[in-house]
Design a protein that fits this description.
Layout (H helix, E strand, L loop, with lengths): L1 E5 L5 H11 L3 E6 L2 H15 L4 E5 H7 L2 E4 L6 H8 L7 E4 L4 E2 L2 E5 L7 H9 L4 E4 L6 H5 L8 E6 L2 H13 L3 E6 L4 H18 L14
Parallel strand pairs: 1-2, 1-4, 2-3, 4-5, 5-8, 9-10
Antiparallel strand pairs: 6-7, 8-9
Bound molecules: NADP nicotinamide-adenine-dinucleotide phosphate (NAP).
Length: 217
């Protein structure tokens, strides 16, 4: 699977990139600046000991991939989507965004669409299979590629096949994925991150996550 990670140069992107590359997926790091994408890919390849990743600008990364993951701050959500709208047509788009309150990351300010993922679907239109996922996973744990990630990732989206594809990709990261149904579930999933940030601060860790119990395996 060819996976582009837009804004893959920050906190959340590199851990995803390293874990997917190690699992044999083809990963392209996207950035606003091609040179920065290339530089971060080179640094991550050095860490892997193999040239498994490549970097470029966001639009070229989105054009080359089958699955496109967005990991930019929520403040850049709408503006970044506008730069890749054409390249996303017919593809699976995974929105990791959480609309945290810029004044207080222990809170969210949900957009009028209901959630960041639903906002993306409104902007991108029905031709793009928007899936919400990975919003509740700690960047710190992802980046420690040998760490076991003891949590569930809730996956939602209108297209069942797209949800299943993304769930399989999440399992390739070494994380348990759960089908949370339609995209509307994102308005419940995204705020959990603010709760996890609250718990991280209170307990002085970077690793809080969620585990759902009581479901059939
Ligand atoms: N960090 C976490 O633990 C975590 C956990 C769960 C979910 N999330 C969510 O994942 C998303 C990314 O979080 P992050 O911590 O990885 O963010 P980040 O490190 O602050 O930024 C990621 C990348 O976004 C690009 N970017 C920054 N400002 C931008 C702007 N104004 N316009 C366009 N691109 C911009 C930058 O890439 P270039 O300069 O290369 O373009 C940057 O390297 C957020 O929505 C966050 O809520 C984060």
């Amino acid at each position: 699977m060819k996976i582009a990670i837009l804004g893959g140069t920050g906190e959340q992107g590199p851990g995803l990139a390293l874990r997917w590359a190690r699992a044999g997926e083809e990963v392209i790091i996207g950035s606003r600046q091609r040179e920065k994408g290339e530089r971060v890919a080179t640094e991550l390849n050095q860490e892997l000991g193999k040239a498994l990743l490549r970097g470029t600008d966001n639009a070229s990364a989105a054009a080359a991939a089958e699955v496109v993951v967005l990991t930019v701050p929520y403040s850049a959500h709408v503006s970044t989507l506008a730069t890749v709208q054409e390249q996303l047509k017919g593809k699976i788009f995974v929105d990791v965004s959480v609309p945290l309150d810029p004044e207080n990351p222990r809170r969210v300010i949900m957009p009028p669409a209901g959630s960041a993922a639903e906002e993306a679907q409104q902007i991108l239109g029905a031709e793009v299979k928007v899936v919400g996922a990975l919003q509740n996973v700690s960047a710190h744990l992802l980046r420690d590629v040998n760490a076991t990630i003891d949590c569930d990732v809730l996956v939602c989206g209108a297209d069942k096949d797209a949800r299943l594809t993304v769930m399989q990709l999440i399992e390739r990261l070494g994380i348990h994925a759960l089908d949370a149904g339609p995209l509307e579930a994102a308005r419940l999933i995204e705020p959990i991150t603010a709760l996890l940030i609250r718990l991280n601060i209170r307990h002085k860790v970077h690793s809080a996550g969620i585990r759902i119990t009581g479901l059939p395996t």
